[in-house]
Design brief:
The protein is mainly beta. The chain contains 2 helices and 12 strands, in the order βαββαβββββββββ. The protein has one domain: q2cbj1_9rhob like domain (Jelly Rolls, Sandwich), CATH 2.60.120. 24% of the residues are buried. The chain binds fe (ii) ion (FE2).
């Protein structure tokens, strides 16, 4: 029997070794509260700042691989553009409810500081089929949610419309994550030229 994982929302998990300068930079950034015990950096163009330009280039490189090698897309004539990027700081007791990143195509996050008690990031399926049935094996394509425990250096790349949340931190350590949105620019041409699209 062949089973096709139809309508998947592919998530890329990767690792980039943490540069201590990135962590020091994150701790130096002005912050504003977003909810409960969570804060975010007031500057939302972090990849424009040294020393994060290098990480931004790595993120674009990995995102291009995700789209071409992972999803089979053809990016000829198109380019990826980092729209915004911001740090999120979670202290003990903080969490984040389900949300999507609107007005974006591809999003991602990179963890600079966390431990085993800092909480999971969970990705939620819009599908409810099989959701409550007992299972021997958890398959990502039919799981109502998929939970990841990040480590420092973990990189995640996902479609911006994929709903996700963060479970509560029980750690005395600050969890620091850099999040971003990517837009695609260029011209998508169609043979009939009637539905050409400029992004
Ligand atoms: Fe998010």
């Amino acid at each position: 029997m062949q089973i096709l994982p139809l309508n998947a929302r592919p998530l890329a998990i990767d690792h980039i070794d943490l540069d201590p300068r990135w962590l020091a930079h994150s701790l130096s950034q002005p912050q504003q509260p977003i909810s409960g015990h969570a804060h975010r950096s007031t500057n939302t163009r972090q990849f424009d700042l040294e020393p994060l330009r290098d990480l931004g280039l790595k993120v674009l490189d990995r995102t291009s691989l995700y789209l071409t090698e992972g999803l089979g897309l053809d990016l000829t004539g198109l380019s990826l553009e980092l729209q915004n990027s911001w740090f999120v700081y979670h202290s003990r007791g903080s969490s984040a409810g389900p949300h999507q990143h609107r007005r974006s195509v591809i999003s991602g996050c990179y963890y600079l500081a966390c431990d085993r008690d800092s909480g999971h990031i969970q990705f939620h399926s819009p599908c409810v089929e099989f959701a409550d049935l007992p299972r021997k094996t958890w398959l990502p394509q039919i799981s109502p949610e998929w939970s990841i425990l990040p480590e420092p250096g973990t990189l995640l790349i996902f479609p911006s419309g994929l709903s996700h949340s963060v479970t509560e931190s029980h750690s005395p350590c600050l969890r620091i994550c850099l999040a971003w949105n990517i837009w695609i620019r260029g011209q998508i041409s169609c043979p009939d030229q009637l539905s050409d699209l400029k992004l």
